[in-house]
Each structure stands twice: as C-alpha cells, then as structure tokens.
Amino acid sequence: MSSATGVDFADWQAIRELTATYNRCFDNADATEWAGTFLQSGRLEVAGEGVTYTGHTELAQFCRSRGWGILHMTLDPEVTVDGDRAEQRCNLLMFRRYPTQEQPTLMATGRYTDNLVRTPDGWRFGLRVVQLDTRLGASKEQSR
Quick check: pTM over 0.70? Predict the structure, then answer.
C-alpha cells in the first residue's frame, strides 16, 4: 500500500515508530536504546551550534548527560523513501518535565531533518539534524 506521496505505508510507519522510539528512549534516559536508533556511525547535529555527536558511544553519553526531564513531541512528518534510503522532516516541541508532576513547560520548538538507512534490523538514523528555535516568543525586532 502506498500513500499519496508514493511512500509505502509500511516504510512510513516504521520510520514514524523509529522516531517515537527515539523520543521515548531519550525522554526516559535510556541511553543504550536511544543510541540504537542510529547506525553505528550515525550522527546527531545541533544546527548552528557546532555540536555533533557521532557513533553509539558519543550518542549514549550525550543522552546520559541529559538525564530524565525532557519530553519530545514530533509532529507533521514528511517522509520520502528511495530504496533503502529515506529522508524525514518533522517539527519538534520539547518540554521540561518535573519530578513533582507540576505542569510541564515548553523549552523549545524546532525541526528535525533526517537521513535514514534501511538495515536488516529496520530503519536507522544515519544523520539527524535538529534546528532549534532558541528564542521562543521573540519577534524579529527582538531577535536583532
């Protein structure tokens, strides 16, 4: 079954499930499983910050350094597939959670641009670039 964009629904669903696993594992500080959503040589880049984490060891260390308390929500996915390669773009809402269960607060908005590879174990991120909107609520005049 293909979607209106020509992407096989099974591929689209598998990529969305990978993204959900990425979110859940990072949010629960499950560093090993989170790093496993990437290829062994996979990279996470924070655009405009000059920050890159490469490979499962660096990725897992990054996740551990953040600990519990973040909640990722990814929205409006756009997925294209070309054989065993895919691209995904999606929007990001990131919240701060509190152990006291007080109301979460919005930390950042942004977007992910992903390059994915189909492996024998399913889809994995080869490169995930996050572009964060660092000045929430700032108008163009305020950000100058």
Answer: yes
